[in-house]
Amino acid sequence: MSDQTAPTGPDQFSGATADNAMRNADRATDGPMLAADGRTLKSSLNRALRRSKLRALMLIAPLLIFVLLTFIAPIADMLFRSVENQIVSDTLPRTVAALSDWDEDGEILPDDAVFRELYRDIFVAKERKLHTRLGSRLNYELTGVSSLFRKSGRKVEDMGEVYQDQFEDLDAFWKEGENWNALMGDADWLAAQNAWDPASGDRQPAFKVSGDAASLLPQTAEMFALYADFVQNEDEDNLAKEDPWALVYSALHDDLTGGADVASYSGPGAAELQAAAAAAPGFDTVTFRDAFEDIDKDWGSLDVWQTLKVYSPNFTSGYFLNSIDMQKTVDGPEMRPESQQLYLKLFLRTLFMSLVITGSCILLGYPVGYILANLPAKTANLLMILVLLPFWTSLLVRTSAWKVMLQQQGVVNDTLVWLGVVADDGRLALINNQTGTIIAMTHILLPFMILPLYSVMKTIPPSYTRAAKSLGATNWTAFWRVYFPQSVPGIGAGSILVFILSIGYYITPEIVGGTTGTFISNRIAYHISSSLNWGLAAALGAILLAVVLGLYWAYDRIVGIDNVKLGG
After folding, report:
1. CATH superfamily name and code, 343-563
2. pLDDT of amino acid 236
3. H or E element at residue 157
4. Positive/negative CA dihedral, 275, 277, 283, 286
5. Helix or strand or coil: residue 283?
6. Segment 94-145, tens digit of pLDDT
7. DSSP string computed for 223-273
8. Taking residues 86-95, what's their average pLDDT?
9. Separation between Cα atoms, residue 75 and residue 63, nearest integer Å
10. Do residues 239 and 210 make contact, with C-beta atoms less than 8 angstroms apart?
11. pLDDT of 4 higher than 50
12. Considering only CA atoms, which of 436, 439, 484, 431 is closest in space to residue 457?
């Protein structure tokens, strides 16, 4: 201690000590501590951690991609389909734009300009075979619209032919596709088109409208560009060998009578165009509103136009409103007439019957699980084979077997009559109703209740109940106060399995449920496979998913999902 001075701080001496040597070494270091590779220790550690996380991610990447593709992506697609409504605006873009200024709350139909845009849209949609799809979509909202669009698609060309015939009678120039190409096409494109050899296998030069045509005849240029795109890309025909649509002739008449200054035009077909401009005001014309009402009087109905206006946005809440027996109107959401209300009843029936089936499985499965858990292992394994045996039989076969057994002349009723429980003329109605669905689904889902119960009960030591009895508890008290609480996690696990499976079943209710024993899932399957109303099916599925998640959340809040065990 002779070479040490008095302390200069807590546990610090100014003399030579081991601690002071370490402090002096730290002061002598000019930077942070380095690793063996020359990097700072902190950056080297972070790099090692990143590599470790990346390796772990690579290990789970296949599973993650599989889940994204088979689970997350379909759910996302379902949610999108439940609100997607782009078919109206994509098929009738000009009509939707023209309807933006129309008062759908009034009692006046749209003016003839809107009907003219409707004619153009339906003409193009008919050529592309999209008008029937649009009719089917709107038919979900207003019955009869599907046939309306089919009929209009067959007859819409007659309107344009009124103008086409007059132009062709005026001059044979308007009959030839080459003349139209020279009039409407860009000079560079026209040169490439004329040089193109169809036998070469090369792709036809894509049509490009000339600047003169676009400024002089804007409507004609727009319609001809649509026609050219269709011929070249969808029909894959030679544009020079095809005659324009009748739609192009009606657009030409609109341009020529709308003040087009053709006198200053000196390009290809100038003389014919000037002659047509002089004759066009004297042509017979079409009043598009009258023409559409001649096709079908429903075009004079406000309901049709209000439906078009209401469902013109790209996204809609209509599917979700229909899913809860409401409808989207010009005045906002409204409840459907009571005679048309279906889905709320189906949702309530599905929840009620799923709960009944879950309760039935608990009542039947608990004693079986208890017996299996307390029998000797050899006997329990033998009986477990009988529990698992239904899994080796087709679900369709099992369901069909119940249909045979439960009918009025089936095995169950025959047995009850033989036992004298019911009279021969008073056989029970056990099929094509809720009773048949509950019986069949309880049998099918019972193993999903027994297995979790058995796995949990197997872990409960028998010494607990023996100790309770030795302390004076009766058999019932020992079971209820000691054994049963320890088996509750198995009941919870089995209940979740059975309830979630039952709420989404549709094969069994379809076969044995009739009209009163079907679930909401049967309606979803109908809209997917039969009516093809995928938007409504997606909305129903989204609501069902939300209900299940909500019940799962409530169960977690009340019971606690951590208390659910499958054994161990």
Report:
1. MetI-like (1.10.3720.10)
2. 85
3. helix 157-170
4. positive
5. coil
6. 999 999 989 888 889 999 999 999 999 999 999 999 999 999 999 998 989 9
7. HHHHHHHIIIIIS---GGGSPPPHHHHHHHHHHHTTT--GGG--STTHHHH
8. 93
9. 17
10. no
11. no
12. 484
The amino acid present at 153, given as its one-letter code, is G
Query: What are the tokens at 155?
Result: 């007859």
Percent of the chain with pLDDT over 90: 47
Q: Are 127 and 245 in contact (CB under 8 A)?
A: yes
Q: In this structure, what is the dihedral angle of CA atoms 419, 424, 425, 426, given to the nearest 10 degrees?
A: 20
Paired tokens of 74 = 């379909």
Reported pTM: 0.78
d(CA 508, CA 70): 25
For CATH 1.10.3720.10, list the domain ranges present in the chain.
343-563
Contact 453, 369 (CB under 8 A): yes
Contact 161, 286 (CB under 8 A): no
Could you tell me what percentage of the chain is helix, strand and coil, using 3-state DSSP and rounding each to the nearest 5?
70, 5, 25
Residue found under tokens 């997350």? 72
pLDDT digits (tens, 9 = 90+) for 242-290: 889 999 999 999 999 988 888 888 888 889 999 999 999 999 999 999 9
Cα atoms in the 13 Å half-sphere on the side-chain side of 5: 5
Nearest to 81 by CA among 538, 544, 546, 529: 538
Contact 491, 555 (CB under 8 A): no
Residues 208, 185: contact at Cβ < 8 Å? yes
Q: At what angle do helices 434-457 and 395-406 cross, to 10 degrees?
A: 130
Q: Which two tokens stand for residue 134?
A: 């649009």
Structure-token match 């100038």, residue found: 270
> Quick one: pLDDT at residue 33?
63
User: Across all residues in the chain, what is the average pLDDT?
Assistant: 87
